[in-house]
Amino acid sequence: MAASPLAGFPFLKMNGLGNEILVMDLRGRDHIITPAEARAIAADPRSRFDQLMALHDSPSAAAFMRIYNNDGSASAACGNGTRCVAWAIGRDGGPDRVRLETSAGALEAQRVGEARYTVDMGPPRFDWRDIPLAHAVADPDAIAVDLPGWTAPGPASALGMGNPHLVCFVPDQQSYDLASQGPALERHPLFPQRTNVSFAQVLDRDHILLRVWERGAGPTLACGTAACATAVAAMRRGLADREAAIDLPGGQLTIAWRETDGHVLMTGPTELEWEGRLPDDFAAEPAPGVA
Ligand SMILES: N[C@H](CCC[C@H](N)C(=O)O)C(=O)O
């Protein structure tokens, strides 16, 4: 098997509140990581990730980001990963403010501490075609998500942050096991591209407990776009003010839904764990019939 153009390629192993992020800078290269390569990289404990952030050349930003889940699927948004990319571009005297392009639009990240960033994640998407949903719904905040043998705690919210989100509000996290319902809800027929699944417990108008089953990655310690989606859904329901602290298993994000332009601002930390290289004999055999 021919050596992959990724053989020996460097990476940064980072995390955003424990959400495991790999950053690979492919700017100046013309290789686009395939789903099979992403899965092979994730399968190696030395380069494991929840999401892989691949940086490519952009005419209008520091980089265009291709985002991969560890199942090889693509996403147009990753909040924790975006903070990590901003740190990587800004390290060693780089810029404190970084513009990044994605297939869902441009993002601006601003350093607000040594390894802490505020990212303008853009506006939430409520139109069914932008989330996306399989069809129009009467009320995106009244989605019935009962499953065989499981009664949802109430009507859920469907919205997008460049990626799809289903937010279920629960009276207490202890009595709802996300791991048992996550896989089915991720594949809820209303979501043609699957969805990220959030169980949110509103503690106060500025404080929400959140657990997330991520599309293409399963349970993670934190999910930035889910924190954005959950905060917006709570605000739309009148359960939270325009800024809230979101407590995830990995730590806390602050989310603000700005009145002036409707953009969602996410603030949180980044962490560099190690710098590594893919094996010199790295190769990924695509699954038969799959790219
Ligand atoms: N699993 C998500 C992408 C990563 C989102 C999450 N890690 C974040 O920090 O926003 C999706 O397929 O839409």
Automatic annotation (TrEMBL):
Gene3D superfamilies: Diaminopimelate Epimerase, Chain A, domain 1. Its EC number is 5.1.1.7. Substrate binds at residues 19, 51, 69, 79-80, 163, 196, 214-215, 224-225. The keyword Transmembrane does not apply. SUPFAM superfamilies: Diaminopimelate epimerase-like. It is an enzyme of class 5 (isomerase). InterPro entries: DAP_epimerase_AS (IPR018510), DAP_epimerase_DapF (IPR001653). One of its GO terms (cellular component) is cytosol. Catalyzes the stereoinversion of LL-2,6-diaminopimelate (L,L-DAP) to meso-diaminopimelate (meso-DAP), a precursor of L-lysine and an essential component of the bacterial peptidoglycan. Homodimer. Belongs to the diaminopimelate epimerase family. This is Diaminopimelate epimerase.
